[in-house]
Each structure stands twice: as C-alpha cells, then as structure tokens.
Design goal:
Layout (H helix, E strand, L loop, with lengths): L1 E3 H6 L1 H9 L4 E4 L4 E4 L8 H4 L25
Parallel strand pairs: 1-2
Antiparallel strand pairs: 2-3
C-alpha cells in the first residue's frame, strides 16, 4: 500500500494494524520513499516457557551434601 506522510500521520493506527497483519506500507515524500513494516514480537524467556515450568516449592536448605561441595572449582 502506498500513502503520503500526511495521511500516514493522520491514520497511523490503521497503518500500524496493516503492518501487524504483514502488509508493507510505502510512504512517499518529496525526497524519497519509506517503508513501514512490523517486526515480529519478541518473546521473553519467561513468556516462552509460561505454563511449562512447574514450581514445587522454595529451596530452604542446601541441595548438595557437604562432601559433594568442591569450593576449589
């Protein structure tokens, strides 16, 4: 889709929705053309594993025996 700067600014929410659907919007200016596209939403690590991690309880004590602890490493 092609538009000018004035229309793009007036109807930004419409063009933003089109970009989110995968369309590319060309904005024409006296000096050139610009492309407006959406980049895929990045998921955080917590968001990508939501519902897959089960928490059984808090760690309240050491998880290793004293003989297994090697502070020299």
């Amino acid at each position: 889709m092609t538009t000018n700067v004035r229309t793009f600014l007036r109807e930004f929410t419409t063009f933003k929705a089109k970009a989110r659907r995968g369309e590319t919007v060309q904005i024409e200016d006296r000096e050139g053309k610009f492309l407006f596209t959406a980049v895929g939403v990045r998921k955080t690590l917590l968001g990508s594993c939501r519902g897959k991690i089960k928490i059984h309880g808090d760690i309240v004590g050491p998880t290793l025996k004293n003989s297994a602890w090697k502070p020299s490493l």
